[in-house]
Amino acid sequence: MIINHPLLGPRDSEEFVYLGSADLINRPTNWESEEAAEDFYQYLYIRENIAGDNRELWYHEQGDQSWLVVTRCTLTHEIKSVELAQDVSRAQGRSK
Amino acid sequence: MSDYTMVKESPLGGAEHEFDGVTVSEVVDQSLVMIAMPNGEAENIEAAMNKACGLSVPAMGQSTQSSDGSVTLWRLQKNQVMAYYAYEGDDAEANIAERIDAPSAYYTDQSDTWAMIRVSGERSRDILERICPIDLDPNVFTLGSVSRTIMEHIGTVIYRDGDDSYVLLTMRSFGRSMLHAIEVSVENVL
What is the ipTM of this complex? Predict the structure, then answer.
């Protein structure tokens, strides 16, 4: 499987490690509120089991050590887009 | 109590092996210093190093050279460059900081943490294509290209420093394993 890294071009998947759903970017920040327990439960354990395009986090461990958001079809394993997780996070209004 | 003295030694003891069409040798005369560019400082740093020795910040996966050709910069990550240059002193960090003259950058000497092995000769690509997942086609991985990847499960930086010459860098403790991997590839190919 080849992942087309946005900065480095096509790279073998052997260079990467897989973390899981890209939802892991959205860690709840309301840890002091009443809903925190429920929100963290949702964040940590509840996942959609998608048959189709799935957004997931990959880490380029044996490369430039960047985190990527990879959109992969779970039915065909086709990789449809690869973005830097940093850019995705900034687009959602975070500073880092 | 005995008086101990430290003896300077390269990671592979200056290993050098000649084969038919390929030479595998340790690189012992080069220093490597990481130059980190803090957020918002990249332009100032580039302007300073350009003024001091004609260096520019290379594109990702590429390298640039100073106007006298003595310092090569590699770009492997967004916010840092690596200075690879012939220097055998023990103070590479201070030495390169003075030559590049960009005080807002952060310098870290990494010379002794890497084992550097040069694979050169007309059959060098035949040897490397068995272990390197990067496309080494001469028109793709052009002269001066640099990349970090994995070879035989070992994290490796590969730099093309000649038409048929490549320098491989692995962590010092993996140097002998890398040398072995190359030698096995030589046996398999030649």
Answer: 0.71
